[in-house]
Design brief:
The strands form two sheets. The protein has an eight-stranded mixed β-sheet with strand order 1-2-4-3-5-6-9-10, sandwiched between helices. The protein contains eight helices and ten strands.
Length: 295
């Protein structure tokens, strides 16, 4: 593993590059980034390592304003910017020595699972996508929050988002919310067990805070609208107990992808795929899928 960097819209993004163990020319490369509020050092090495051991190059990057990457305001989730960063990372991966530029696979989880679908629909050269516990429909996510926690929760988050946007307009420092917190707290994700699941796998650059304006954009993030335009095979890995990204939305996206979609379902919640036996099962299924579609 070595540190490299690339530029996305004038801002430097930091990445790890793993070279496939065979180190032969013409290798496929898997481009990876984290979900909502995640950094490359938080639970992704458990996937990147097995990919490299199987002979793939891997590029794991931090979005602008997250982790080791540059960019302001810090801790800001912007779907548009993050998808731009994915495109920049793909360009960097295609230039890596020994990488086959026509065998680039995208790997995403949660928010980045949705990003991977949208980016692949825009870049017709992408060879494969894996999306694990993907956030495919923000509107469905908001409806799920209302059912679980009541409309007052959304109203409070929207209020915090408005405060943050007002501060931005006045040139003031961002107003942050926790990314994960206990049920009933003022955090973006408050499902039971979320905080306890994330903290043990969090890396040294991860901070439990996000610009509150992200709460106002959740419903606008609908990568499911891109699913019917995918140019390549995709593996949807769905947690049947997912309390953050509704599994029904992922199933609908898979139906739109049609014959290009492979579906695997697991009896897990949203954050159970970053460690433990279900993580190992998930990466095994990803390796089988990639070996089949990237031959």
């Amino acid at each position: 593993m070595r540190n490299i960097s690339f530029t996305s819209h004038g801002t430097r993004c930091e990445a790890w590059h793993f070279t496939g163990v065979a180190a032969e020319p013409g290798r496929p490369c898997v481009v990876m980034a984290h979900g909502f509020g995640g950094t490359r050092d938080t639970g992704l090495l458990g996937y990147a390592g097995p990919f490299a051991a199987a002979g793939y190059d891997v590029l794991v990057f931090d979005y602008r304003s997250w982790g080791d990457s540059e960019g302001t305001p810090r801790q800001n989730v912007s779907c548009r910017r993050q998808r731009e960063d994915y495109h920049a990372a793909i360009d960097a991966a295609r230039r890596l020595p020994g990488v086959d530029p026509e065998r680039i696979a995208l790997w995403g989880t949660s928010y980045s699972g949705g990003h991977a679908v949208a980016v692949a629909a825009q870049d017709r050269r992408i060879a494969a996508v894996t999306a694990i516990t993907p956030a495919m429909d923000g509107a469905a996510t908001l409806a799920h929050v209302v059912r679980r926690a009541g409309p007052g929760t959304l109203a409070r988050l929207a209020g915090h988002g408005a405060i943050d946007l007002t501060r931005a307009a006045l040139g003031l420092a961002p107003h942050h919310l926790p990314i994960v917190g206990p049920p009933g707290s003022a955090a973006m994700m408050t499902s039971p067990g979320a905080l306890e699941a994330v903290v043990p796998v969090a890396g040294p650059t991860w901070r439990n805070e996000v610009c509150a304006r992200a709460a106002l954009a959740v419903g606008l993030n609908r990568p499911t609208t891109f699913a019917g335009r995918l140019p390549c095979p995709i593996l949807f890995q769905i947690g049947t107990r997912d309390s953050v990204a509704p599994p029904s939305a992922a199933r609908r996206a898979a139906a739109k992808a049609g014959r290009l979609a492979t579906i695997r379902e697991y009896p897990v919640d949203h954050f159970d795929v970053y460690d433990g036996p279900w993580q190992r099962r998930a990466v095994t299924d990803q390796l089988h899928f990639l070996a089949r579609v990237l031959r």
